[in-house]
Amino acid sequence: MCTDAAATEAQRLAAVYRYEILDSPRAATFDRITALAARVFRVPVAAISMVDADRVWFASCDGMPVTQTPREPGLCATTILSPVPRVVPDLRVDEDARDNSLVTSGAVRFYAGAPLRTADGHNIGALCLLDTEPRTLDAADVENLADLAALVVTELELRLRTRQEVAAVRRTMAREHRRLRLLSVTDPLTGIANRRALTEGLALALAEDLDVERPISLVLADLDHFKSINDRYGHGTGDRVLTAVAECLGRQVRDGDLVARFGGEEFITLLNATSRQDAVGWAERTREALADLVVDGVPARVTASFGVATHDGSESADDLIHRADLAL
């Protein structure tokens, strides 16, 4: 039984926390409800309480300057144990409430509370009425109190739904931003990085790594006689050639390197921590790999010319690309 009670309380607290109401700023809607309750029932104090693990926190309290109290039995902490409103005409003679500090201090004699019951059956707090003198409520009053408590839960649900909807919109916007960002740096035909991605990646690499012993090298590849492929076999075949070349270049690089379509039939590969000699060797191996490509509809071999440039430690990204172009 103790285990069941602990599990039930854990579920109830989870329901309290999902509304993110504890310790939140005062809400005008809740203040209106407690002010209305105080006027309608003619009591000096009306409050909306949330029962936490070891305290009772007040989302609104009309008539008493209090934000929270210890979770003591007898008042709201007892009300949440029942699905129906609880009315105690005289707290001093109530076995559950007479030892409560508010009662022993003489601050409260009358209590009525309607549990704030969620749609999934958890009592997370109460809409309560307090008076310094004993009194009672009739059946209509109890029903009205329960209806006001239901309004509090409705407001909590609306606030929760609004937060969830805002969060969903933000997630959608974040996904769309990532998608648009990916599109802005991806070549739509080959699926590899585009010129913008290369420019940004190269600028970042140069800013982060200026080690002259492990320099950055660029290899610019320009497909030979590509126009004749388009003219002889059609642009669809030319697109297949470009895609096959991009895939081939991608197979030649390491993690951290970058292959980009620079424009038309030009590709640039950024090789990190690669000397000029090693970059030239990479270009030669890649030239041979391209020559071995078999592209459907193209009987001729795919060949390319290469230009290699290695960063000298001081030049800009544009200068490095220019040197690779001159080398080609």
Helix tally? 10
Question: Which range does the strand content fall in?
Answer: 15-25%
Based on CA inertia axes, which overall geometry fits? rod-shaped
Any idea how many domains? 2
Mean of all residue-level pLDDT scores: 92
Along the chain, the helix and strand elements come as HHEEEHEHEEHHEHHEEHEH
The CATH architecture designation of the largest domain is 2-Layer Sandwich
Number of strands: 10
Largest sheet: 6 strands, antiparallel
CATH topology category name of the largest domain: Beta-Lactamase
- Evaluate the radius of gyration: 37 Å
Organism: Nakamurella flavida
Protein name: Sensor domain-containing diguanylate cyclase
GO molecular function, one term: diguanylate cyclase activity
Domain GGDEF: 214-328
Provide structural commentary.
Residues 214-328 form the GGDEF domain. One of its GO terms (cellular component) is plasma membrane. One of its GO terms (biological process) is negative regulation of bacterial-type flagellum-dependent cell motility. InterPro entries: Diguanylate_Cyclase (IPR050469), GAF (IPR003018), GAF-like_dom_sf (IPR029016), GGDEF_dom (IPR000160), Nucleotide_cyclase (IPR029787), Rev_trsase/Diguanyl_cyclase (IPR043128). GO terms for molecular function: diguanylate cyclase activity. With 328 residues, this protein is α+β, with helices and mostly antiparallel strands. The chain folds into two domains: 2-165, Beta-Lactamase (2-Layer Sandwich); 195-327, Alpha-Beta Plaits (2-Layer Sandwich), CATH 3.30.70.270. The longest helix has 46 residues, at 139-184. It is rod-shaped. The mean pLDDT is 92. It has a six-stranded antiparallel sheet with strand order 3-2-1-6-5-4. A four-stranded antiparallel sheet has the order 8-9-7-10, sandwiched between helices. Helix 2 (28-41) runs antiparallel to helix 5, helix 7 (226-233) packs across helix 8 and helix 8 (235-252) packs across helix 9. Strand 1 (45-51) and strand 2 (55-62) form a beta hairpin. The chain has helices at 2-18, 28-41, 76-79, 101-104, 139-184, 195-208, 226-233, 235-252, 276-291, 317-327; strands at residues 45-51, 55-62, 68-70, 86-88, 110-117, 123-131, 217-223, 258-263, 266-271, 304-310. It contains ten helices and ten strands. The chain starts with a helix and ends with a helix.
